[in-house]
Specification:
The complex is a heterodimer of chains A (261) and B (275). Chain A contains ten helices and eight strands. In chain A, helix 2 links the parallel strand 2 and strand 3. The longest helix of chain A has 15 residues. The C terminus of chain B is likely disordered. Chain B is 43% helix and 12% strand. With 275 residues, chain B is an alpha/beta fold. The chains are: A alpha/beta (261), B alpha/beta (275). The interface between A and B is medium-sized, with 30 and 35 residues.
Chain lengths: 261, 275
Amino acid sequence: MIVDVNTFVGPYPFRRVPESTLGSLTESMTRLGIDQAWVSHLPSVFWRDPMEGNDWLLQATGEVPAMAPVPAIHPGLPGWEAELDRVALLPVPAVRCDASFYGLDPAGEEVCDLVRACAGHDIPLLTAVRLEDGRQRHPHDQAPELTAADVRSWLRVDAGFRLVVTHADRPFIEEVHFGSTPSEAQRVWWDISWAWGPPEDHLELLLKTVGIDRFVFGTGQPLRLPDAAFAKLDLLDLPVENREKLTARNLQSSLTRPFND
Amino acid sequence: MDGVDAFMLIDVHAHFYHDRTPRQDWRERNQSRLTAGERMGITLHVASILGSWGATSPTYFPSPEDLDYANRWMLELQQANPDRIVGYVAVNPNFQEHSLEQIERYLGEGMVGIKLAASRRADDALLDPLCRAAARHHVPMLQHVWQHRGRDWPGQEASDAVELVTLAQRHPDTNFILAHIAGGGDWLHSLRALRGVDNVHVDLSGSGVDGGMLEACLEAVGAGRLVWGADITLDTGLAKLRYLEHLVDAEDVACIRWKNAAVLFGLPLATDTAS
């Protein structure tokens, strides 16, 4: 079983990205043997109201059993609580908030309110450190990257809060993990999309130091080639049971909501 | 592809470390490259060592002493692993006589290319004698490039594709490799600059695995001017290789995996190797 927690559909505003449709994602999943994808709506990350993309996402993915929609919540907009109440009743694995892309202070009170609300609903929050390499971003793509300090602060807001972070590199992961208490660190999961493989072997090291239980499978497709996440796994000396932890079992044991068993 | 072709894979952009670099784990990193390379099916690492990697002179502005030590180490690696490692002689064009001496010495001892990091802008006249030496020896020059540099970056006098193209047009008989198209910066800018400049190949290495990048490379320069490489992330190199197999036909994959590189470096073709 392979679950990709880090996929997008829809066009990207800053460059041409092929294979960004729902159909393309389906084809990619088939090509690579991905059984389920957590799907986010890419264009609305950049909309003034990202929640306007939720209905389209829910409807489009509702017709594809292998796709689990991840609606967006913008906690700086009036009525966001009602939107969270609504989507939390639906079979969604998580909600997402990309605070700096929304123009919010990630460590500010609005995001902390969302953190508390997600804990109250027992729904994980999904967020990205970045979407592209900072050296190549469009001149108008100026949103700051998420910082490790932001993530550490969220983990301290509510003991029931669960977080999935995508596109984090080794220093970021280490800073959060070893800058948090064990109980705080147990509530964050990292996708493997931005951790380097050999010869630097960052992912191999992280699996030992941070622990394999903290990682889930994510590709970042179509902004990133999904083949990269598989290549990382294939270059590790992983027993089958550990590979299965990364590709699905960690997620199934700790991040499943009642609707998604 | 026939049976031999299918298994050939040349990494045109590899690096190794030595005992005078700042990294205590230099042996592990070297071994990891070879182990992962075996797993991926890399048949030949074309590699360089950039001086002392910052220990006694800056990585991108290496001293003559550091370059000589590194080139000697690189040659010894090549001699110890003749079937899977060959070397670039790395030079700093600010030291003209030393650069030319290193080129003559190490190409004469069997190295197969010249590595230019970021010691001097690519369109600088100081590079001209080195380009002529490359042409004379029929070896390519691998030029470190910041894809659309935009401004100066600390620690290097980086070049971008426009500057490399200027140099390449001054030296139509020299083959150049634009380093790591996926190594950071605006690769679309580089690809636009490279259209129609036949003596510049594009090395696919770098940590970037952007969706759309390989399609753009193929559109800009075609499979005939792409060469596969990994640089410091073999996993992303493997990913690009796999995606290419999904994107283009087997003959084009073979060109990118090894055939283009074999021609550039004057290496025996697969049939010769097999025999």
